[in-house]
Amino acid sequence: MKIPQLKKKHELKSCHNITWEDNYSWIHQDNILEVLKDSKKLLPEVRKYLEDENHYFSEQMSDTKQIQKILFDEIKGRIKLEDESLPYKDVRYSYWTKTTEKGNYSIKLRKKIETGEIEEIWNGDLEKEKLKTEYFGLGDLEVSYNDKYLAYSLDLKGSEYYTIQIRDIESNKLISEKIENTSGGITFSLDDKYIFYSKLDNNHRPREIFRHEIGTSSKKDLLIFKEESEAFTVGIGLSSDEKYFFITTSDHNTSEQYYFKSDEISPKPKLIDKRKRGIIYSVNSWNDNFYKHTNEDAEDFKIEKSNNIENKNWEIFIPARDEVLIGGLIFLKDWIIRSETSNALSKLILRNPKTNLEEELFFSDEMVIVPGVSLTQRDRNTDTVYLSYSSPKTPGRTYLYNLKTKDKKLVKEQEIPTGHDPNEYIVERLECPSHDGRMVPLTITRHKKTKLDGSAKLLLYGYGSYGSSMSPSFSSTRISLIDRDIIWVTSHIRGGMEKGMKWWKEGKLLNKKNTFEDYIASAKFLIENNYTAKGNIIGMGGSAGGLLMGAVVNQAPDLFLGIIMAVPFVDSLTTNLDHSLPLTVGEFDEFGNAKDKKDHFDYIFSYAPYNNIKKMDYPNILITTSLSDNRVLFDEPAKFTAKLREYKTDNNLLLLKTEMNAGHGGKSGRDGAIEEIAIDYAFALKIAGKLNPLS
Questions:
Q1: Are 615 and 673 in contact (CB under 8 A)?
Q2: How far apart are CA 674 and CA 679, in angstroms?
Q3: Inter-residue contact 136 to 105 (CB < 8 Å)
Q4: Of 126, 402, 420, 683, which one's alpha carbon is 20 to 30 angstroms from that of 212?
């Protein structure tokens, strides 16, 4: 098949007296948000281009069909298809979910504590079948506090416009009309009379909190809070002691909270602390005290305590420590648990609030683990919790743990039906110096048979944005590559919070290039230390990690054998200049405001992947996107691909695959997700010369 070509239509853009060509800009439609809701509004010639690229992808990947099937079966074979979650005990029922061998979606069950009677209250596969839809995205699934109603939110396009419906569990009948255009989150009132939800504005931003009376028309819903800033988005949740609702409004850098009592008949939210730029805080309540998690005068957060939420004289409860990220609190009657993260490693700290004595909750003698804790029941008058951990080589293990007696019982272990021996794998935690001397943590997972003589292929994964930390947890999918002598490395680059807030700040705004430099330094370090060789690295990242991939492939293409970028944020300058797009204004504190600030414009222009494509050789590249993605519009990777085809001087693979019925997260359902992973991995094996099923 002929290589697809997107038509060029000459267009000059200008800002801050800088002019540049953007000859593929025409594919961005002014009614793009309508297109996300209804793909029939897509321009016919754009649809044809995307379909041509999909056909070309299929042709070029035809030799991977067998390995895709093998990978799919391998990955699915490591999943216990008939499985159940651990139960959560409410007042009258215990709730849990299960999956089945043939199903793609979860089933929610409950058991009446008095009688042991089990009933199925939700079956995702049956719901999808009833709706006769290809895409089925469940946003939220909540049972009311008195066990009477089931509320759920669905997205049937992938565009993240969620519709809420409420069902009487006993009769299985819908009792309210659809509530359209919500962000998906659902919070019940304690009396089962209402739900609270956030509504999306015309730019797909949740900026209003409504209260809906169950059984009435949504036209009568009460607006209880409205955020005026276009940069802030809102959400609502219940306090741990169930005495208050907290409304949080925030962007990526600043937050503000309001509260009202959970039994208020006419909610009138009251402000806790007025927003201050750069200050993030959240308040919870427990045992007649309020706890504030804040970074004010505490870069890596502290926790303050007060017996009066209107009292501004908060006392220190957990002090701040440099480059130790203090997490939130989980409350039990006699215990408080918090998380801490430093140097890309997390731990759980148990505190006795009566004595203020603390201890770390230990799980394993492995150095690199991801610990977790969750409640066993709604009633917090208990000493038992679920404690869990996994590592890059060890599947998840969950214990029923008594905080008082220290008794521990293994109650669930992630079963790998096809077998898995952690002793076959080696996990290392190393650090490498970046361009400015900052030390970047690397989590390395490899098979013990893989030689460290530079001959191995290596997949280097990175993200580095929004303060999101890349957790070194177990992944059953990665084993398919690691077993084939591909070393998997996660680089904990700046832009995340693996080393605290400073780590994030050093990788955003006018420091964003540190993210790319950290990643490139990681690649060079791995080459220098014989984990791999120059030209044997496969870079992988998605969304903002796709921005990373686009930037580094422009900057250092010779390091890479290939690049895999999913829903990549590669036309970052164009998107930043368009303040009407859903995420743009809320991300000014992450990437900058190029339209209004020249220094931001100059900086973004200097690294934006689309704008910095050069006439040179590029490695093999696979780009995947989705037509209904509202976070990274499909036109970004489409433009990027088209321009790459125009400029690149090599004969390496350049493939664009567009899911025509999906959103930012790709295909819905278990099998759909596995299919997409199998494609990515098949591409990696193809360029690595490992298509032989036995290699």
A1: no
A2: 9
A3: yes
A4: 126
Query: 528: buried, middle or exposed (CB in 10 Å: 19+, 13-18, 0-12)?
Result: exposed
Whether the full predicted model's pTM is greater than 0.70, yes or no, is yes
pLDDT of residue 693: 65
- E-assigned strand segments in 313-383: 315-318, 325-331, 336-342, 345-351, 358-361, 370-375
What is each CA distance from 313 to 153, 305, 425, 653, in whole angstroms?
40, 9, 52, 62
pLDDT of residue 641: 98
| Residue matched to tokens 């005495």 | 243
Q: Are the CB atoms for 562 and 683 separated by under 8 Å? A: yes
Q: Which two tokens stand for residue 20?
A: 């540049």
Give yes or no for a contact between 202 and 582, defined as CB atoms under 8 angstroms apart. Answer: no
Give the total residue count for the chain: 695
The angle formed by the CA atoms of residues 257, 200 and 244, to the nearest 5 degrees, is 30
- 177 confidence band (pLDDT: 50, 70, 90): confident
Closest CA to 529 of 458, 453, 434: 453
Q: Are 329 and 293 in contact (CB under 8 A)?
A: yes
CB contact burial 436-465 (16+ within 10 A = b; e otherwise): eebebbbbbbbbeebeeebebbbbbbbbbb
Query: DSSP label at 511?
Result: G
pLDDT band at 362 (very low <50, low <70, confident <90, very high): confident
Strands 194-200 and 18-21 turn out to be unpaired
CA distance 138 to 60: 34
Give the distance, in angstroms, between the CA of residue 403 and the centroid of all CA atoms in the same chain: 31
d(CA 247, CA 669): 31
Q: Which residue in 346, 404, 334 sits closest to 372, CA to CA?
A: 346
Location of structure tokens 């290589």: 3
Using CA atoms, how far apart are residues 420 and 397, in angstroms rounded to an integer?
14
CA distance 138 to 399: 28
Dig out the tokens for 18 from the structure. 């800088």
Q: How far apart are CA 620 and CA 655, in angstroms?
A: 8
- What Å distances lie between residue 58 and 61, 655, 683, 691, CA to CA? 5, 9, 12, 16
Q: How far apart are CA 478 and CA 444, in angstroms?
A: 12
Q: Are 401 and 460 in contact (CB under 8 A)?
A: no
In 3D space, the residue among 78, 77, 108 whose CA is nearest the CA of residue 94 turns out to be 108
